[in-house]
Amino acid sequence: MQISVNQKFENVAVVVRAISKKVDQNNKGYYHLQVGIGLKSYDAKIWSDDEKINNEIIPGCIAYISGIARDFKGTTQLHINTIERIFNPSQDLINSILPTGFANENDMVNEINRLIDTIQNPYIKSLLQNIFEHQEVKKHFYKKAAGAEIHHAYIGGLAQHTIEVAKIVKGYCEIFSYIKYDVAMASALLHDIGKIFELSSFPENKYTTRGRMLGHITLGYEFVSKLISEIKDFPTDIKLDIQHCILSHHGMLEMASPVVPMTIEAIAVHNADKASSEINGFNLAIQRDTGTDLWTEYSPAYKRYIKK
């Protein structure tokens, strides 16, 4: 569902992504919200300081809203007259309003398995099979996002991003025959595995305490290292290669990588990760935008406007 300027809406279900209480120039209280319907994200205002709103409406909750949409500096802003939290939403209602990706979960499971089957090294293949059969991975990997806000920030986003990175790396290996395929492919499949611990489940999709304090790179490194240790005689050189790719996949120290890429496989994984995240980030900015012209709002993440 998309809400247009001057459209009245009644009892529309939304996810409250953010809410804060503010004071206007006349010292009157009001609420500023970000609400989501699918991939769309709307700026919203409630011109009231009702304390019940402050107590009941929290980030991650689902609510019915009624009001009218207005144009505000070229974007669609929702002026909410009433908001009512839904305390026990049905699964069908949740599914209808949460942001979802562009791939079916079963298709992504099958694609991950196909990519694992391309691995020749028995140690690496065993590691990947053990990880993707792990209880925590099966429970969360295909349902969580790859990011809280910027890229692949929707249900299934983590798996979709991982498959994109793996396919890009596969393409690199076809062009650059000297890339060690098994190491690069395994690292592509595992580079963001720590995000199953870093981000909470939907509808919240926020950083967990562990995620904030340690980050997905550290969490992923520790998780993969633990499962490597459970495979007898796992080769030390391969272990170091995969660990290095995970630790360096953000590419730069200032981008939270503990080390920079120092192997061909690591630089391949980094560039594949960058391509997937930035291309999807542009597309997500376009999908979310509620503006009325040909350009998105200014993106602080990418420091530019993006043509729709």
UniProtKB/TrEMBL annotation:
Pfam families: HD. It comes from Caloramator mitchellensis. InterPro entries: HD/PDEase_dom, HD_domain, HDIG_dom, YhaM_exoribonuc/phosphodiest. Transmembrane segments: none annotated. GO terms for molecular function: hydrolase activity. PANTHER family: 3'-5' EXORIBONUCLEASE YHAM (PTHR37294:SF1). It is an enzyme of class 3 (hydrolase). This is 3'-5' exoribonuclease YhaM. Its EC number is 3.1.-.-. Residues 154-287 form the HD/PDEase domain. NCBIfam families: HDIG (TIGR00277).
